[in-house]
């Protein structure tokens, strides 16, 4: 009897809990309005391998079975930017993973930066989206074959007029593709307070990107700077993150929206209450090695073009830098950016399910 009653009570509780699920309010409410994280110490930095790069930046990370696949920028004050790839199964050993410099692939030498990787299911192809002066992409049938990335192709014929107008001394950076069931959307930033969005029907992707529109805008460029990422968090809700520059370094603001195209509602969107920043990241295993929590990505285990992440127990691979070097006024491109992992500690989910 007791067992049956208990089971019935459990079933009732489960039913009650699943009632609100299915609308975007429920999904949004799975997210806290303030986030808390812990960070590791440095995991990955430049190798002493003859390439003499200054920083490892802008990671994009996916997990397939036990393997993490990371694409990142190589930054060098003398040689400019290119891309690298590495993989590992254990974060504690991420620093030992050999780098495959993607200039060895047909993707080639020259300016390439800020990659995003995803699997475009309709074409059964991996895409790497990045900036090369334009919004560029390469494709590859096999994620495990880094020599297979094709030469860059472009989403636009040149810098779109709206973005050219908006730049005013900024830079056109950080291209990001995310698709819903009908369209693929291409976001980019101008380091000048604007986030742009174009779209194309999924069956036309990667061709046919529309003229961009302004998706988000701030009067101060520092409040909407760069490194935007947009993820599906289920049931028609999207989470947008944008890197900003505050009084105490770089941090991320967040918004949710019922559609990739908006409207975007602030979630944790201030330097005092950031999605990720100085104020909400602890370093339990050592010193606060970086004040800035800069360009990076949530770890995705769903690798396709929908960029679905469960709104639970987020993990985010970021770039950070020694605060004394960051504030010393040297060239941005020479900064010794390195990668570390933050893990959300105040998730409102357990065992990956909404509650
Ligand atoms: C890991 O990277 C190496 C290149 O450094 C590549 O040859 C190998 O296939 C990758 N492993 C997996 C599991 O993708
Ligand atoms: C991710 C998420 O919240 N998915 C839920 C969407 O809504 C259906 C029911 O309407 C649930 O079964 C899913 O778990
Ligand atoms: C995989 C996982 O996170 N399992 C956890 C599910 O919740 C129970 C009880 O809270 C934990 O003990 C498990 O470790």
Automatic annotation (TrEMBL):
Described function: Alpha-L-arabinofuranosidase involved in the hydrolysis of xylan, a major structural heterogeneous polysaccharide found in plant biomass representing the second most abundant polysaccharide in the biosphere, after cellulose.
Gene3D superfamilies: Glycosyl hydrolase domain, family 43
UniProt keyword annotations, A-Z: Glycosidase, Hydrolase, Secreted, Signal
A UniProt-annotated Pfam family: Glyco_hydro_62
GO molecular function per UniProt: alpha-L-arabinofuranosidase activity
Top-level class of the enzyme under EC nomenclature: hydrolase
Organism: Periconia macrospinosa
GO biological process: L-arabinose metabolic process; xylan catabolic process
Name used for this protein in its record: Alpha-L-arabinofuranosidase
Domain of life: Eukaryota
GO cellular component: extracellular region
């Amino acid at each position: 009897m007791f067992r049956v009653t208990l089971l019935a009570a459990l079933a009732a509780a489960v039913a009650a809990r699943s009632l609100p699920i299915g609308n975007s309010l429920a999904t949004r409410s799975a997210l806290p309005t303030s986030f808390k994280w812990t960070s590791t110490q440095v995991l990955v930095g430049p190798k002493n391998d003859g390439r003499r790069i200054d920083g490892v930046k802008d990671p994009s990370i996916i997990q397939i079975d036990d393997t993490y696949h990371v694409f990142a920028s190589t930054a060098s004050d003398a040689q400019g930017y290119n891309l690298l790839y590495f993989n590992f199964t254990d974060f504690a050993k991420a620093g030992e993973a050999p780098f495959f410099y993607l200039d060895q692939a047909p993707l080639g030498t020259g300016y390439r930066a800020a990659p995003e990787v995803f699997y475009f299911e309709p074409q059964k192809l991996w895409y790497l989206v990045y900036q090369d002066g334009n919004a560029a992409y390469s494709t590859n049938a096999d994620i495990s074959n880094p020599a297979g990335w094709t030469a860059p192709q472009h989403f636009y014929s040149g810098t779109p007029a709206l973005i050219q107008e908006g730049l005013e001394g900024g830079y056109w950076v950080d291209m990001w593709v995310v698709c819903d069931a009908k369209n693929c959307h291409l976001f980019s930033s101008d380091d000048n307070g604007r986030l742009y969005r174009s779209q194309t029907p999924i069956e036309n992707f990667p061709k046919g990107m529309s003229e961009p529109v302004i998706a988000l805008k701030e009067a101060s460029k520092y409040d909407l700077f760069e490194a935007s990422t947009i993820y599906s968090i289920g049931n028609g809700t999207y989470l947008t993150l944008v890197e900003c520059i505050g009084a105490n370094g770089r941090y991320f603001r967040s918004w949710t929206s019922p559609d990739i195209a908006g409207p975007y509602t602030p979630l944790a969107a201030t330097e005092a209450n950031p999605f990720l920043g100085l104020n909400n990241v602890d370093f339990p295993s050592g010193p606060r090695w970086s004040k800035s929590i800069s360009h990076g990505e949530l770890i995705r285990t769903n690798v396709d073009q929908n960029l679905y992440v469960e709104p639970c127990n987020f993990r985010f691979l970021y770039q950070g830098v020694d605060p004394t070097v960051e504030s010393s006024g040297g060239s941005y491109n020479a900064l010794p950016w390195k990668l570390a992992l933050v893990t959300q500690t105040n998730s409102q989910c357990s065992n990956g399910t909404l509650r």
